[in-house]
């Protein structure tokens, strides 16, 4: 479950990163291709004081937006790296758990085979002991019969 969640999170962050990078690239290319004048020239080319203040204010807003975009890209890169490390750790844990489980299953099978061998040995020992006891009982009966005959004579 954690693997699916992390993989989905990584995919979402990578998609968002691609979208932000595309917007940033588009904005930079657009600025470069149109050959816009510098920010300072925009402010000084204003015809009125009010226009200069508005341009300065808009330039500050645009600068803030670009800074936020750059920070968002950095944050997404860090998040994706962190999530990939987490995913790798979870996958390693799963591999280790699977290996442990296979080892336990193998150990269980070996133990079961050993137990079956021991049970078979005990069964054969039981049969041998049963045969031995029967022979001894038959010997006891013969001795009892011999003792009877001796006492009767």
Task: Explain what the structure shows.
The chain is mostly helical. It is 93% helix and 0% strand. The chain has helices at residues 2-34, 39-44, 49-152. Helix 1 (2-34) packs antiparallel against helix 3 (49-152). The termini are far apart. The mean pLDDT is 86.
Shape designation: rod-shaped
Name the poorly predicted regions: none
- Count of DSSP H/I helices: 3
Distance between the termini: 93 Å
Strand percent estimate: under 5%
Rg value: 45 Å
Please summarize the sheet with the most strands. none
Beta strands, count: 0
Provide the residue-averaged pLDDT.
86
Note the run of SSEs as H and E. Answer: HHH
Summarize the structure.
This protein has 153 residues and is mainly alpha-helical. Helices cover 93% and strands 0% of the residues.
What are the main properties of this structure?
153 residues; mainly alpha; 3 helices; 93% helix; rod-shaped
């Amino acid at each position: 479950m954690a693997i699916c969640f992390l993989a989905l999170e990584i995919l979402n962050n990578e998609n968002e990163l691609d979208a932000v990078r595309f917007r940033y690239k588009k904005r930079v290319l657009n600025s470069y291709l149109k050959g816009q004048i510098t920010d300072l020239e925009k402010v000084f080319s204003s015809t009125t004081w009010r226009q200069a203040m508005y341009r300065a204010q808009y330039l500050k807003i645009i600068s803030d937006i670009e800074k936020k975009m750059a920070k968002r890209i950095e944050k997404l890169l860090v998040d994706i790296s962190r999530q990939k490390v987490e995913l790798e750790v979870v996958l390693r844990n799963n591999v280790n758990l699977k290996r442990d489980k296979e080892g336990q299953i193998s150990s269980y099978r070996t133990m079961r085979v050993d137990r079956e061998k021991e049970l078979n040995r005990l069964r054969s020992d039981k049969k041998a002991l049963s045969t031995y006891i029967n022979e001894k009982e038959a010997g006891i009966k013969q001795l009892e019969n011999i003792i009877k005959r001796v006492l009767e004579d």
